[in-house]
Amino acid sequence: MALFNILKKEDGTPQQRPVPQHIAVIMDGNGRWAKKRGLPRTAGHKVGAETFRNIATYCKDIGVKYFTVYAFSTENWKRPAEEVDTLMNLFRRYLKEAIETMAERGVSVRVIGDLSVLAEDIRELIADCDRESAKMEDPAVATLCINYGGRDEIKNAVRAIAQQVQSGALQPEDITEDTISRHLYTADMPDPDLIIRPSGEIRTSNFLLWQSAYAEYYFTDVLWPDFKPEHLEAAIEDFNRRQRRFGGV
Ligand code: IPE
Ligand code: IPE
Ligand code: MG
Q1: Among all residues, which ones are annotated catalytic?
Q2: Does pLDDT of 15 surpass 60?
Q3: Domain assignment of residue 204, yes or no
Q4: Which pLDDT band, with edges at 50, 70 and 90, does 4 fall under?
Q5: Which domain holds residue 64?
Q6: Cα-to-centroid distance, 203 and ligand 1 (Å)
Q7: Cβ contacts of residue 70 below 8 Å, gap of 6+?
Q8: Hey, whose CA ends up nearest to atom 9 of ligand 1?
Q9: Fewest CB within a 10 Å sphere: which of 98, 149, 208, 243?
Q10: What pLDDT sits at residue 14?
């Protein structure tokens, strides 16, 4: 069961309202937001990146310990090269900014996914981010999923476990659910409590497949570039009304 932090009011006084420990978001609807305005899809991604900054900060301010966003899927390479380039440039810009400001902001930024195919300079920025994060004590954690796919993640975990079995280091009967969890990119964080998908789509699109087993989902028609703290508040309020049973009664 997740731990809950108490939301702090603007003046710092605690308010009796729990917030989820781990919130994840499928950042969707950037393209449609731009289309509605007669703008190129890339314009939607730029505003979407601003939304990510605002919501990540807001999450930290209200005491959410883990905030994880789906930024680029293993399937998103199918998009036009110009759009992929814009997204990669937005990641570059954000990572540079994060390296400089994360200590001061108290939010460590990490990136998960199959990073091996990303451009070398992006991988270096991610390594710099990791170095800065390692210096921080008990920070809030913002995780960007880039070239992330839930199935790809599970496949990689299975491969690593199979290698241990093959070498004799592990017996098949000793493989538990925990063995699998520990081989995922998210090994060192709790499962998400609340997964939000804006833009009206009601599917997971390959996001945190294993980790979402008991997550509460929240869907809204709001497009990601229009997503404001008040929408996050609505999602948290809805989450707080749910009864999580985890299979019990
Ligand atoms: C989400 O917005 C951003 C990424 C998937 C990278 P979309 O680009 O998917 O926006 P829509 O779904 O086309 O509106
Ligand atoms: C999911 O959005 C991936 C990210 C938000 C990064 P998509 O826009 O790629 O998902 P589909 O194609 O609508 O399922
Ligand atoms: Mg989409």
Answers
A1: 28, 76
A2: yes
A3: yes
A4: low
A5: 19-150+190-241
A6: 13
A7: 24, 25, 26, 27, 145, 148, 205, 207
A8: 28
A9: 243
A10: 65
In a domain, 136, yes or no: yes
Q: Atom 6 (ligand 1): residue with closest C-alpha?
A: 72
DSSP 87-116: HHHHHHHHHHHHHHHHHHHTEEEEEES-GG
Q: pLDDT: is 2 or 172 the higher one?
A: 172
Residue 148 in contact with ligand 2 by CB distance below 6 A: no
Task: State how many domains the chain has.
Answer: 1
Q: Is the CB of 71 under 6 A from ligand 2?
A: yes
Per-residue DSSP letter, 191: P
- Model confidence at 16, pLDDT cuts 50, 70, 90, reads low
| Phi, psi of 49, rounded to the nearest 5 degrees | -65, -35
pTM of the model: 0.95
| Average pLDDT score over the chain | 95
Neighbours of ion ligand 3 (CB under 5 A): 28
Measured from the CA of 201, which atom of ligand 2 is nearest? Answer: 13
Supply the CATH number for residue 23's domain.
Answer: 3.40.1180.10
pLDDT, mean of residues 35-63: 97
* pLDDT at 84 (0 to 100): 98
Residue 223: both structure tokens together: 């497009």
